[in-house]
Specification:
The chain is α/β, with parallel strands linked by helices. About 35% of the residues lie in helices and about 20% in strands. A 5-stranded parallel sheet has the order 2-1-6-5-8. The protein has a 3-stranded mixed sheet with strand order 3-4-7.
């Protein structure tokens, strides 16, 4: 996968893209990152990229020219049309399903705005996706794009050490992830559940499925509203409710 980022603060990305899983993914040639300062594409002699909004109002608005030209530069020789993602609080709320969708692409371009907003023509004629990571406003799209990049890259084949890790993540199955334990089996009288020590794979899988459902019911019951429950899950839910 190729990931391009357009920002006026490229230095912000070095620490995130150059560490941990994201760095290892690039070292294995599973992904490449390219961060561009889109001021370099401005035709203004002072490399200005923003201006006052027509009609008045507070703040400054990103002008279309630098963004249009930057995206054209990155896509003019592309054989496959990339997804051009605008990080924006007005966008679609980011989910694990969206991360999985984007992980199937070969080329992603992230546009990180600042100031008050974007010239609307950028949304209309350049962007394929608008994404928000939550119902709040940040000073710019940089941090939000880092969240999305991290979430997407870890899903690429070969990035995580264990190929079963990603499918077991919270939200991937439609449920929150079950609890985890490691050694020692008894820490100051706090013991690991017997099922996990039994060596019985069927019992372990059943315990994990039940605890994933329990955690979702207790913390994110909204996730169960449209879930098609199995007979076992219906039985477990009744059990949880009776225990309240």
């Amino acid at each position: 996968m190729k990931i391009d980022v357009l920002t006026i603060f490229p230095e912000m990305f070095a620490g995130v893209l150059g560490q941990s899983i994201l760095k290892k993914a690039e070292e294995r040639n599973l992904v490449s990152y390219h961060v561009y300062n889109f001021r370099e594409f401005s035709t203004d002699k002072h490399q200005k990229v923003d201006d006052y909004p027509y009609g008045g109002g507070a703040g400054m608005v990103l002008t279309p020219q630098p963004i249009f030209d930057a995206v054209h530069h990155l896509t003019k020789e592309a054989k496959i049309k990339p997804r051009v993602i605008l990080m924006c609080p007005q966008g679609e709320r980011f989910t694990q399903a969206k991360a999985e969708e984007l992980a199937s692409e070969e080329h992603l371009i992230f546009i990180c705005g600042h100031y008050e907003g974007y010239d609307e023509r950028i949304r209309q004629f350049v962007v394929t996706d608008e994404i928000s990571i939550g119902d709040y406003v940040l000073t710019g799209g940089e941090l939000a794009s880092m969240v999305v990049i991290d979430s997407v890259v870890r899903l690429l084949p070969g990035v995580l050490g264990n190929k079963e890790s990603a499918p077991c993540d919270s939200y991937s199955s439609g449920l929150l992830e079950y609890p985890h334990y490691t050694r020692p089996a008894d820490y100051k009288g706090l013991k690991v559940p017997e099922q996990l020590l039994s060596g019985n794979h069927k019992a372990i899988e059943e315990w994990r499925a039940k605890e994933a459902l329990r955690r979702t019911y207790e913390r994110r019951p909204d996730m169960l509203e449209h879930r098609k429950l199995t007979d076992a899950e219906k039985k477990w839910l009744d059990e949880f409710k009776n225990q309240e």
